[in-house]
Amino acid sequence: MSDQAASPMSSAAQSVAQVAAVPAASGSLARWARRLEAVALPVGALIVGLAAFGLFLLALGKSPADFYALVYKAGFGTWFSWQNTLSRAAPLLLAALCVALPARLGLMIIGGEGAIVLGGVAAGGLGAAMPWMPAIIGVPLMAIFAMLVGGAWIGAVGALRQKRGVNETISSLLMAYIAIALMNHLVEGPLRDPASLNKPSTAPLAEGLRIGDLPGMDVHWGFALGVICCVVAWVLIEKTTWGFAARLVGGNVRAAQIQGLPVGRLLIGFTALGGAFAGLAGMIEVSAVQGSANGSLAAGYGYAGILVAFLARHNGLAIIPVAILIGGMEASSGLVQRRMDLPDATVLVLEGFVFVAILLSETVYGRFKIFAPERWSSR
Amino acid sequence: MNETDIGYWGVPLAILGGAIRVSTPFLFVSLGECLTERSGRINLGLEGTLVFGAMAGYAIAYETGNPWAGVLAAALAGALFGLVHGLMCSLPRVNDIAIGIALMLLGMGLAFFFGKPYIQPVAPDLPAIELGSWSSYPQVQAALRVNVLFVIGAALAVVLWWVFRATKVGLIVRVVGDSTDAARAMGLRPNRIRIASTAVGGASAGVAGAYLSLYYPGSWNEGISSGQGLMAVALVIFARWNPIQCFGAALLFGGAGALGPALQSVGITSGYYLFYAAPYVLTLGMLIATSSTARAMTGAPGELSITK
Q1: Per-domain boundaries in chain A
Q2: Cα A9 to Cα A334: distance, rounded to the nearest angstrom
């Protein structure tokens, strides 16, 4: 962000070159070398992060080999654990989109948690008000309402950025705190089901308004919805003129303005879309998992989504495997606690190590000659 | 009605007392962030530093029996986090905001990881100064029971203001923050100065965490911070990077944070959670009021990424 503003001309040229992908050296080998860099470096950074966490465990006298074996077993070892992993990946897919879409326009929004909890409360409240509604109308209505609420919430962050120049990172996180307070107010006040004594919740959803499992699996429909949304987001960003315009804005705002692009509408539209996906994550959490809206909505999916988006380098298709990987790590938390006597925050530390490693990898892009065909001939 | 019952007068009094109590962590984090931002970097990871400082301070105070050892440990841990942030951001193309987010999550993860055994035990509290002992009203006494760290923080604000205004060190930090090129032309090493500023800023945020766990609320748990480390970043912008104004802004934010508990103490409980959101709404409102797309913010360091 800072370097773009420092030298608008050079980065404008750079961004146009990146977006249009003008090859300096031709040939399919050169093309593949460039593509390989975009995969090899994040994977390399992931391995470095996991290795660093292994050293951390070693320093504490725990075996990294045992740890990763357990993560594999609990996350990916059996069909049962795969189903658990995929279910946990569902909210991460959508939460990551709330980070990735605005990031493609150069905005760093980290308050997706707010859109998730409000989307969940919106869906839970609406569902509780219409238990008689048939599923075919009721479930889409809940999803749309949650997406509208989430979209308005994060769209407001984009609008504040565009209209008033308010820093989106700080405002989105502040709004996440406000959203959680709003959720607590609604769930413990106006929307509270009097029968929910220990854990204040909205009234339980009617059976018809619950999202069931995918056919033949113990994985709820939320996972499929999340995958579809990721593909839609990828097509939108990579294959449409809107997406092209959005990437130009992300490359250089001033250059995009000079081109006559509707920068404001793009910024607000894409942040709102990201928020709508996060709102949908909340709706899925309520309809497929919890059965009513309550405090469990603020489970940190929004924050794990930040890591997923950065690991996937804000690419919609890459989010799918990354979310499954992180979902598997989170699924292993219980087993790791029991078998290795490690606290439940172990996964948080692991995620932190991976996050730092992936950000540090930014500094080595373009440093490896093997990925830079234009330097192959020179010595 | 007995003679110590002061009815609704208790609300402003409780807000005043609360403002002093609640503002101290804001004060330390914002002074640390002020120094870091004046050097041209933004550290969004102070929320993680604060939580880790709270854990480290509590753990060391419990193990040694001395709360001041805890404060020192929290400052050292905070400095370490700041150092890591500063070093990482000195690498080319590494974004300071993103690293801040990562260190925020890592700091909280590490604090919860190592803090598990310290949720139950009781560590010694930091001492307080009774400025309200002249009054016979217990409410007044409670409101004016001021922690030593608050006094230190207030003094630190003045010292930092003076350092920026009248010393060579302050000038060096300001030059580095305003223009990397100018600093290089003067023969300064911008990265080193930024690393040092971030480390000192981190130490200050660590102390803020120790205040949370060792005085108010005065225990260690995973919900110890309610975003003070993050709000302080917005607070510094509102305070226009001026340490004295950071002090005023911290008091204001502390008062907003004390609104909910103060109203609850006189029996107003409806909408409690909405009052709980008051500091965030206030922060956001101030951020909106003080930001602008048209002009650079007055007093903003030139190299700061969020205001460019």
Answers
A1: 96-310
A2: 52
Nearest-CA residue of chain B relative to A182?
B274
Radius of gyration of chain A measured on its C-alpha atoms: 22
| CA A17/CA A23 separation, integer angstroms | 9
> Where do we find the tokens 């340490």?
B243
B271/chain A closest Cα distance in angstroms: 6
pLDDT in tens, B135-171: 787 777 777 788 899 999 999 999 999 999 999 999 9
* Residue from the list B92, B101, B306 with its beta carbon closest to the beta carbon of A110: B101
Whether residue B43 contacts residue B35, with contact meaning beta carbons closer than 8 Å, is answered with no
Measured CA to CA, the distance from residue B236 to residue B33 in angstroms comes to: 7
Per-residue pLDDT of B200-231, as tens digits, reads 999 999 999 999 999 988 899 988 988 888 88
DSSP 3-state assignment of A220?
strand
Which of B91, B109, B237 lies nearest to residue A351, judging by beta carbons?
B109
- What span, in angstroms and rounded, lies between the C-alpha atoms of B88 and A263? 32
Q: How far, in Å, are A97, A101, A272, A281, B224 from residue A299 at the CA level?
A: 17, 22, 22, 12, 17
Per CB-CB distance under 8 Å, the chain A contacts of B220 are none
**Alpha-carbon distance B68 to B135, whole Å?**
29
Tokens of A89: 């990946």
Between chain A and chain B, the number of residue pairs with CB atoms below 8 A apart is 150
Residue B199, min C-alpha distance to chain A (Å): 18
Q: Are strands B128-130 and B145-147 parallel, antiparallel or unpaired?
A: antiparallel
CATH T-level fold of B7-127+136-289: ABC transporter involved in vitamin B12 uptake, BtuC (1.10.3470)
Closest CA–CA distance from residue A307 to any residue of chain B (Å): 8
pTM score: 0.90
Among all chains, which residue has been given the structure tokens 């640390």?
Answer: B32
CB contact under 8 A, A188 and B293: no
